[in-house]
Amino acid sequence: MSQERTRPGAGTITVAGLAVMNIVAVVSLRGLPAEAEYGLASTFYYLFAALFFLAPVGLVAAELATGWPEEGGMFRWVGEAFGSRWGFLAILMVFIEGCIWFPTILTFAAVTLAYTGSDAEAAQQISSNKLFVLVVVLGVFWLATLIALRGVKSFSQVAKWGGIVGTLVPAALLVGLAAAYLAGGNPSQVELSWGAFVPDLSKFSNIVLAAGIFLFYAGMEMNAVHVRSIKNPIRNYPIAILVAALGAVVVLVLGTLAIAVVVPEGQINLTQSLLTAFNTLLDWAGIGWAGPVLAAMLAVGVLAGVVTWVAGPATGLLSVARAGYLPRWFHRTNRAGMPSRILLVQAAIVTALSVMFVILPSVQAAYQLLSQLTVILYLVAYVLMFAAVIALRYSQPSRPRRYHVPGGMVGVWVIGGCGLLAATLALVVSFVPPAQIEVGSATTYVGLLVGLSVVFVALPFWAYSARRPSWRDETLDFAPFTWQVEAPVGAPLPDSPVAAPGSAPGDRAADHRDR
C-alpha cells in the first residue's frame, strides 16, 4: 500500500524522461579503457551486447516488475518462478556483486585523485602505488558508509549532481575533443577501417575482456519499476528502452574510441588511460591547465555514486532479512532508519576484498580480477532472471501484467532466450584470463577467481538452509509468493512452487501472515 501511495500516477513520466533515467543508470566511464584494447572492434562488442543483453534486460524486467510489483525486486521475480531459495541466491548475488564493485570503482577514484595535482609524471607514479590505492579505497568507502548511516538527508545532496557533473559532462568533453583532434589532421593510434571493425573471433582469449562489457549495461532493470507510471506502456516503454540503449551505446562507443584514438594500444592501462587520454587531448587543445579540474570532476562523480549505492542494496536486503531469511541480528536499524549492521557487514566485505590489491602483483591485476568476479556474480543473477520470465509464462500465464515482452510465447523465448544465452556465454568466458593484461600467474588468477566465485555462490545456500522461523519479523507485512498463497490451509508453507500443490487460489495472504 505504501508503494501505491508514493508511486506517480500513470503518464507522469515521459518517454524522454525514462530514457534519460536509464542512460544515467547504466553509463559509467571507468570501464572504457578495458574495451579500448580492441580499438574499432570494441564497437562490434558494444553493439552485440546491446542487442543480445541490454535490450532483453530492459524488456524482461518490465514484464516482471509490472506482473509482480510487490516488495523484493529480483528476489520476488526469481522466487515466484523457482522458489525462495533461488530468489535468495539472486538477491544476495546483487548485494555481494555490489560489495566487489566498490573496490573497482574506487580504484578509478584513487587514480583520478592522484591526477588532481599539476605534475603528471608524479601523478602516474602515485596512482600506480598499491598502498595509496588501498588507503583511498578504504578511506572513501568507510566515509561513504558513515554518511549513509546518517540517513537519506545526509547523502542525497552529496549525490544529487554527481552523475551529470562527473559522467555526462566529462563524456561529452572527451568525445568532442577527440573528434576535433582527428578533424585537425592528427593521426589515430588505431586503425579506423571496416576490416578493423570485425574482431578476430578465432582467438578465444580476445573475447574474454569483452565479457565485461555486459556489466557496462547492467542496471537497466532498476528503472523497470517506472513502467506503470508511463502513458501507454505497451507502446512507449519499448521506445524509451530503444532510445536509452542507443544513447548508452553512443556514449560508450565514442568514449572508448576517443581513448583508443589518442592512447597507443601497448600503453592502455585499465586504471589510468582515461586520465591519460584527457590530458593528451587537453594539452593538444592548449588547455592543459584544466586536467586537474577534470580529474576532480571525475572523482566527484564516482564518489557521489558510491555514497548513493552504499545504502541501496543494503536497504533492499533488509526487507528480505526481516521477512525471515537472515538472523534478527541483521534486522537492526539506527535512528535514521538505515540498516546499520548490514551496512557494517558490507563494509567489512569490501575491506577484505580491497586487501587483494596488496597480494596480487599489480594494481591492474587486482582490478581485473575483481572486475571479472563482479561480472560473474551479477551474471548469475541475470541468468536466473531471464530463466524466470520464461518459466513464469508457463506457471502463471493468467497473472495480470501491465507490460508483456512482445510476441507472445515465441517472443519471450526469443528475447528471454537471447539474454539467457548471452549471459551464460559471458559467464563462462569470464573465467579465462585475458591475454592483453598482465595478471601474474594464470593459475593463481583462475584459482582465485574460481575459488571466490564458489564461495560467494555457496554462501546464500548455506544461509538459506540455516534460517529459522524465529528470524521473521512479525511486524513486517511482506507479501507471500503466489504459490504460497495457493498452498492448502494447515499445510507447512512450501519453499518452492514445485512443493506447492495446485489448489485453487483463495484469500491465503491473511492465513500466511497468521502463520
Describe what this molecule looks like in 3D.
The chain is mainly alpha-helical and 515 residues long. It is built from 23 helices and no strands. The longest helix is centred in the middle third of the chain and has 35 residues, at 291-325. The chain starts with a helix and ends with a helix.
Helix/strand layout:
Blueprint: H1 2-6, H2 15-26, H3 32-36, H4 41-67, H5 74-82, H6 84-114, H7 120-127, H8 130-149, H9 152-159, H10 162-183, H11 194-197, H12 208-211, H13 213-216, H14 233-262, H15 273-284, H16 291-325, H17 340-354, H18 356-359, H19 363-395, H20 408-429, H21 442-465, H22 482-485, H23 509-514
Please give a quick description of this structure:
The chain is 67% helix and 0% strand.
What structural keywords apply?
single chain, 515 residues, mainly alpha, 0% strand, globular, disordered N terminus, disordered C terminus
Poorly predicted runs are 1-10, 501-515
User: What's the N-to-C terminus distance?
Assistant: 21 Å
Our Rg estimate from Cα atoms comes to 23 Å
Proportion of residues in extended strands: under 5%
* Strand elements, count: 0
What does the overall shape look like?
Answer: globular
Mean pLDDT comes to 78
Structural class: mainly alpha
Main sheet: strands, sense, barrel: none
Number of helices: 23
The portion of residues assigned to helices is 55-70%
Helix-strand sequence: HHHHHHHHHHHHHHHHHHHHHHH
